[in-house]
Amino acid sequence: MSDLTDPQIERSELAFEASLRPGSLDEFVGQENVRKQLSLILDAAAIQKRVADHILLAGPPGLGKTTLAMIVAKESNANLRLTSGPAIQHAGDLAAVLSSLMPGEVLFIDEIHRMARSAEEMLYLAMEDFRIDVMVGKGPGATSVSLEIAPFTLVGATTRSGILANPLRDRFGFTANLEFYSDDELASVLARAARQLGIEIHTDATAAIASRSRGTPRIANRLLRRVRDFALVNSHSVISVAIANDAMSIYEVDSLGLDRLDREVLKVLCTSYPGRAVGLSTIAVSVGEEQDTIDGVVEPYLVRSGLVVRTPKGREATAAAYQHLGLPKPNNGQASLFDL
Ligand code: ADP
User: Fold this and answer.
1) CB atoms inside a 10 Å sphere around CB 76
2) Domain ranges, ordered by start, for the chain
3) Mean pLDDT of the chain
């Protein structure tokens, strides 16, 4: 997978992303229902002068969960504290964070599904009663002491809401399921980012980048940055659609937003195993990649784009895949898929 189309954030992008984050619900593009619902929750809390209900943000990486957590804090005039599931490996890690919260603060736990089980149980009580039970002492003399903590709003983010324990999920007053963005919405994200970065870009060029961004604002912003670099190096002060297309062909991102690895996987399915279902491990070996990468990053987008289907026997290329690669459809009697 090239870094360009991986929806996960890279370290080197932290500052760039921070500079592009919308600062309010009004500036946040798309996700209309989520915005309306969040706005209601925040307004109701303000009227009643209490902390807002706990909020769970669920959805694939790069769709705006961290940004929304920041907006929730900002719109509640509250300080934001950030941590993540992998950083909470013991109940004690969470106790340290919870007991240091100031009244009204927003605690953001990214990848909340990766938190240690023991911490999760501590969180239940904290979310419900703003209390935690901590063990004092060791061995047979250890006792549990109940500590009051400041009222706070928990914003949890997860890319895998399906594996979240029910008791945890039930304790959120509101769950927002973020959806992939339409090309028009991504074009708005790009136009806004271009304004902020002082980039002059034609509307059809933003549309060309949007359609290759896999429904994901993070990827859209990243592609814009690469196109800007290309324009700079080639002394173009305005980005036209031709420049955007040239830049993206250099980075090997095609018209559907597929990168080289995506296309390699498709090619394996279409040319080595035409009309047949193939197991994940075979695909991984054929393209020389980790199975996790194929499973976690490549396949979801190929399936979502209708290029690959998952069958009980494995993965199979659809008619659209052959068409996209400019290959003839196989003629081996397994035509059913090609009705898709
Ligand atoms: P997540 O936490 O879901 O991985 P982020 O909140 O970090 O995603 O968003 C990734 C990048 O995409 C940020 O730089 C942000 O500026 C941009 N972004 C995400 N959603 C939107 C949106 N709705 N409008 C404008 N920019 C967005």
Assistant:
1) 19
2) 31-177, 183-250, 260-339
3) 91
Query: With a 6 A CB cut-off, is 212 part of the ligand 1 pocket?
Result: no
Q: Considering 66, 153, 175, 318, which one is annotated as catalytic?
A: 66
SS3 state of residue 110: strand
Q: Provide the 10 A C-beta neighbour count for residue 230.
A: 18
CB 21 within 8 A of CB 67: yes
CATH code for the structural domain at 183-250: 1.10.8.60
* CB of 191 sitting under 6 A from ligand 1: no
Catalytic residue among 6, 67, 83, 110: 110
Q: What is the pTM of this model?
A: 0.89
Distance in angstroms (rounded) separating the CA atoms of residues 215 and 304 = 10
What pLDDT, in 10s, does the model give residues 303-335?
Answer: 999 999 998 889 999 999 999 999 998 875 454
CATH number of this structure's domain 260-339: 1.10.10.10
pLDDT tens by residue, 190-201: 999 999 999 999
Ligand 1 centroid to residue 26 C-alpha, Å? 14
Q: What are phi and psi of 81, to 5 degrees?
A: -115, 130
The CATH code of the domain at 31-177 is: 3.40.50.300
